[in-house]
């Protein structure tokens, strides 16, 4: 026999339905005992909870709030958490995969409606892209799949349900919107009207390619200029006039705003004449003092545009802190810093705030590296430099050696030289130089360079300085290289946090090296030893080492080695080694992980 509903259940159901209408507050609802109100709040869907808060009398806000605040304690702290926890529960119920990514303290109500609106926008874009669509964006119906999260089934079938159209959601929840992703199909004038109540701080735009997209976008940028701090373009085609109009919309001379802090163009095409670049773009680069991050990654830049951008930033001593010009073809972009002309440059020009420079995959050669070494003198605060994927060869690395020799107190701490066509001789010379610096590097990658086992001794000497993270993946160490590393390794590695030795075909010698390394590195957190052709007995060797070391190690990636067979079950052994409930040893239990890594061309 079906159990009859309780009186409390029926009352809550009735109040819930009234709150979903949202027209007027329910008389005396907020005069109920706190225990009953708490029980009611716990059963409200998102729209009802929103209306509950909207109509809440001012005097009740001392007891109820929707965020996290460590300054409130005692009884009021408990009252304060009720709404915040309810929004957190609703967020987790709807997007469980995102809950661990939220930074605390968090306003769960704001995050909920922001994510909700993004879901609505994504769905509306799918509708608007259909060839048969000819209506208004604001009139697009939000699907039941989304609505059932904020209402309930009975309300969806009610004639008084007002939340079916997209316009309702932006009118009601727009003020909670801070970040938004927009497809080109939604870059229309009507979108600006929908977003009029929002407080946009971050805007990501995709597939902007024609004037019909740019004009409405500029209107939206002007409308949001007071709050907008980050704009990102992905898969866009930006002509000179488009870029000029966008920059003019983001920055108006002599008008004070919070200012754009981050401007990024990724996997796109920029088509401008560097000799006749739009004045608004140049003005944007030189005048927006709030601009800290500038990315033109994979944007079809050539050396002329690259030189123009860098020269403009340098000439006006920009406050930029992160510059990304990666995945372009800009070889020759720093020719003005060649040895012949560098002396004529004004010593007063510098990028004092620049901390991170990414030049990955730009077809830079040894001459570009030489010019870069000269240009580094104008970046006195640079801490991170990525030159990976550039064929600078040993001539290029010797230019870096010259830079470090002349600047032993350089602030540079992170250097990526992965896949730079370096040889063993060049890297040995480079490592020997780094070992003598007053401020040694914290991170270095020379991965995917054919160095061979001869680099082992210099590598050990460098390891014992103060390196925190080292990537020597795929450098061809082989068993002989790991054997030499083990023989030379004797001093403690007190600062080493992570090391990547994957794809070196070291076999059993890889395990022997790690068994000696782990006890000498008390702060070591992560090891990548994947694809090294290690035999099954290596696992027991490493387990003994980890067991005796008792350090901070929480991850050893053993993917692609020969540990697993149908006859062997390591479950009980690996269960001994856990960190925060996760296994320390990463060993995929599938036949695919048995296949040796093939690094042959």
TrEMBL record:
Superkingdom of this protein's organism: Eukaryota
SUPFAM superfamilies: RNI-like
UniProt cross-references to SMART domains, sorted A to Z: LRR_RI (SM00368)
Family matches, as InterPro entries: Leu-rich_rpt (IPR001611), LRR_dom_sf (IPR032675)
A Pfam family hit: LRR_6
Listed Gene3D superfamilies: Ribonuclease Inhibitor
Protein's name according to its UniProt entry: F-box domain-containing protein
Native source species: Arabis nemorensis
């Amino acid at each position: 026999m079906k159990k009859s509903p309780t009186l409390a259940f029926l009352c809550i159901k009735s109040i819930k339905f009234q709150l979903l209408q949202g027209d007027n507050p329910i008389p005396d609802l907020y005069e109920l005992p706190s225990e009953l109100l708490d029980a009611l709040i716990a059963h409200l869907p998102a729209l009802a909870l929103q209306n509950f808060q909207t109509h809440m009398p001012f005097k009740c806000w001392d007891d109820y709030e929707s965020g996290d605040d460590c300054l409130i304690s005692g009884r009021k702290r408990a009252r304060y958490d009720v709404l915040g926890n309810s929004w957190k529960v609703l967020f987790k119920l709807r997007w469980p995969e995102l809950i661990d990514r939220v930074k605390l303290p968090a306003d769960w109500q704001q995050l909920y409606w922001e994510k909700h609106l993004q879901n609505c926008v994504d769905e509306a874009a799918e509708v608007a892209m259909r060839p048969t669509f000819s209506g208004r964006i604001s009139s697009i119906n939000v699907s039941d799949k989304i609505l059932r999260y904020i209402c309930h089934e009975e309300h969806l079938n009610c004639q008084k349900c007002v939340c079916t159209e997209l316009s309702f959601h932006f009118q009601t929840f727009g003020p909670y919107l801070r970040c938004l992703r927009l497809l080109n199909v939604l870059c229309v004038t009507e979108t600006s009207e929908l977003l009029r109540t929002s407080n946009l701080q971050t805007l990501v735009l995709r597939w902007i390619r024609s004037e019909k997209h740019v004009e409405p976008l500029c209107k939206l940028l002007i409308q949001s200029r007071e709050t907008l701090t980050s704009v990102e373009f992905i898969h866009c085609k930006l002509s000179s006039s488009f870029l000029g109009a966008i920059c003019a919309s983001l920055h108006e001379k002599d008008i004070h705003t919070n200012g754009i802090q981050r401007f990024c163009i990724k996997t796109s095409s920029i088509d401008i004449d560097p000799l006749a670049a739009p004045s608004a773009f140049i003005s944007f680069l030189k005048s927006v003092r709030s601009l800290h991050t500038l990315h033109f990654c994979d944007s079809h830049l050539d050396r002329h545009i690259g030189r123009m951008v860098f020269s403009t930033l340098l000439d006006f001593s920009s406050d930029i802190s992160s510059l990304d010009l990666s995945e372009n073809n800009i070889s020759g972009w720093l020719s003005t810093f060649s040895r012949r002309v560098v002396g004529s440059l004004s010593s007063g020009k510098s990028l004092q705030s620049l901390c991170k420079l990414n030049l990955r995959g730009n077809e830079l050669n040894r001459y570009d590296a030489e010019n870069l070494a000269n240009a580094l003198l104008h970046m006195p605060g640079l801490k991170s430099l990525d030159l990976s994927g550039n064929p600078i060869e040993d001539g290029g690395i010797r230019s870096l050696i010259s830079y470090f020799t002349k600047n032993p107190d350089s602030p540079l701490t992170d250097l990526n030289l992965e896949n730079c066509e370096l040889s063993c001789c060049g890297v040995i010379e480079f490592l020997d130089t780094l070992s003598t610096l007053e401020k040694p590097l914290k991170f270095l990658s020379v991965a995917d360079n054919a160095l061979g086992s001869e680099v082992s001794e210099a590598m050990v000497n460098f390891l014992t300085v103060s390196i925190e993270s080292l990537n020597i993946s795929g450098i061809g160490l082989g068993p002989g290289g790991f054997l030499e590393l083990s023989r030379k390794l004797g001093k403690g590695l007190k600062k080493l946090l992570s090391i990547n030795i994957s794809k070196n075909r070291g076999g059993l010698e890889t395990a022997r090296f790690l068994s000696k390394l782990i006890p000498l590195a008390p702060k070591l957190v992560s090891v990548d030893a994947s694809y090294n052709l290690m035999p099954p007995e290596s696992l027991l060797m490493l387990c003994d080492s980890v067991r005796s070391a008792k350090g901070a190690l929480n991850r050893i990636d053993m993917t692609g080695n020969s540990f697993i067979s149908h006859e062997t079950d390591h479950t009980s052994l690996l269960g001994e080694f856990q960190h925060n409930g996760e296994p320390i040893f990463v060993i995929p239990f599938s036949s695919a992980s048995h296949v040796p890594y093939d690094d042959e061309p």
